[in-house]
Specification:
This protein is mostly beta strands and about 90 residues long. The chain has one domain (about 5-80). Helices cover about 15% and strands about 45% of the residues. It contains 2 helices and 5 strands, in the order H-E-E-H-E-E-E. It has helices at about 5-10, 50-55, and strands at about 15-30, 30-45, 60-65, 70-75, 80. The protein has a 5-stranded antiparallel β-sheet with strand order 3-1-2-4-5. Strand 1 and strand 2 form a beta hairpin. The longest helix is centred in the first third of the chain and has 7 residues, at about 5-10. The radius of gyration is 12 Å and the shape is globular. The model has no long low-confidence stretch (mean pLDDT about 85).
Length: about 90
């Protein structure tokens, strides 16, 4: 898998869901800012929820309509929760 920036992914897969592998990120103000990713595959809107639920560890499903990949970090649960931000 090739390391990419989100802006590149948005150009290659406009207005659709993609399954991603997080390669680099950092935490800032209770948010995980994703810096480098690798595209696993494009995902149909119909299968996006199923793909997200089947994602493991550093994988996630995100829509390219979002300008940035930003995830809310929930410290109380000790788990990463995915929140879709409209930018």
């Amino acid at each position: 898998m090739k390391s990419m920036k989100w802006s590149e992914v948005r150009k290659l897969y406009p207005n659709q869901f993609v399954k991603l592998k997080v390669l680099a990120s950092h935490i800032e103000n209770s948010q995980e800012i994703i810096e480098d990713i690798a595209v696993i595959k494009p995902v149909t809107e119909k299968s996006a929820t199923k793909e997200l639920l089947n994602s493991k560890g550093d994988e996630l499903v995100y829509h390219t309509a979002n300008e940035n990949v930003v995830l809310e970090v929930r410290q109380d649960m000790g788990l990463r929760r995915f929140v879709y931000h409209e930018n």
